[in-house]
Structure formats: C-alpha cells, structure tokens
Specification:
The protein has one domain. It is built from eight helices and two strands. The protein has helices at residues 3-19, 24-40, 44-67, 88-107, 111-133, 139-160, 168-185, 195-208, and strands spanning 69-75, 78-85.
Length: 209
C-alpha cells in the first residue's frame, strides 16, 4: 500500500471513529444512565425536560425515516436528494451532546464543567462533519437532522429556563456515567443489526394501513 493509500485509510478510520460517537447504540444507554442519575439527584425538571426533548427527537426521526426514507424532489430545476431522511446521527447527537452541554453550562460552578460543555459541542460538530465526509447522508438529511435536534432541544430549554440551576455534583455524576458508557459502547452500531431492517419494514407496513 502506498503512503497516500495508507493516509487515506487512516483518515477514513478516524472519521468512522468520530462518527460512531453519534450512533444510537452508544447514545441510547448513556442517555438512559444520565436520566436515572438526574432523577436520583432530585433534578426532575432537568431529567424530564432534556429527556422529553431527546425522546421526541428520536421518535420523530424514526417516524420520518419510516414514512419518507429516501426521496428526490426537483425544485426550480434542481434535484434535492435524501438517502435516509433525516440523519439520525445529526439529530440525536445534537439533542444528546448539545443538551448535556447546556445542562453542564447552566449548572457549572467552575471552569471544569464548562470546559467539558465546550468539548461536547466540539464533539457534536465533529460527529456531524464526519458523517457528512463519509457520505453516509447527503446535505438534505444532515440539515434536517440538525434542525430537528435543535428544535426539540429549544423546547426543552424553555422548560429549563423556568428553574434555577442545580448542584453541580449531580452533573459530575452524569458526566462520569456518560463518559464511561460512551467509551465502553463505542463501535457498536444500531444500523449493523439485521433486526432493524425488519423493524423498519414492519413499521412502514403498519403506517401504510
């Protein structure tokens, strides 16, 4: 293998490594653990607001994928393509990582948690760019996913704004649990599981009835 070929292979692996942080197989368990910790720490408003936002994002993404999926629309002579509309990586990573970043930022009492919030934003941007560069989704899917994640998170933020920030100790526990689960589960891919094809076909047939 040539040097250029080796570098190209390493670039591909780096992009895939980054994109895998946005898979629902990684985000789902980490999100569940974060919600449990918030509830145990009596941060019910935070848990319900952020939890409802992420779940609404996930359900809406699933319904849109089942009902629309891939399509092509011509507008003013220009064809807009969608492969799997919207991008679940873009939508869920935004709702999860940016949502957690907002919780950390508003509840932080020092620079460490706020620094972690900034890192989470950078991670989400990296996931979005990696998925796009890997061409897992066209721009239409990506933009729709980001908009969906932002919309559900904005609704959750309105609920959070009505409550005072919580003790940062609970947020520290959330960060530790999320970091541990994300690293342990990294590399798992929901899309790789054969069951998913049957799941989507079943949902599509039910919606068509």
């Amino acid at each position: 293998m040539t040097r250029d070929g080796t570098e190209g292979r390493l670039d591909l692996l780096a992009l895939m490594y980054l994109a895998d942080f946005g898979d629902i197989a990684v985000i789902g368990p980490a999100f569940a653990a974060a919600i449990v910790i918030l509830l145990a720490a009596d941060c019910r408003r935070e848990a319900l607001a952020w939890g409802a936002g992420v779940l609404a994002c996930a359900v809406t993404t699933l319904l849109l994928k089942v009902s629309l999926g891939g399509f092509a629309v011509t507008v003013f002579g220009r064809t807009i393509h969608a492969f799997s509309f919207p991008s679940g990586h873009a939508a869920l990573s935004f709702a999860f990582y940016i949502g957690l970043a907002l919780l950390l930022w508003r509840g932080a009492e020092g620079v460490i948690l706020r620094g972690l919030a900034v890192l989470l934003v950078a991670l989400q941007i990296g996931i979005t760019l990696a998925v796009f560069l890997l061409r897992w989704h066209p721009p239409t899917d990506m933009v729709a996913g980001l908009c969906l994640g932002a919309l559900t998170l904005c609704l959750a933020q309105r609920v959070l704004d009505a409550a005072p920030p919580r003790d940062s100790r609970a947020l520290t526990g959330v960060v530790i649990a999320v970091a541990a689960l994300v690293m342990v589960l990294h590399g798992e891919r929901f899309d790789d599981r054969p069951l998913n094809g049957e799941l989507f076909r079943t949902l599509a047939s039910e919606l068509a009835l």
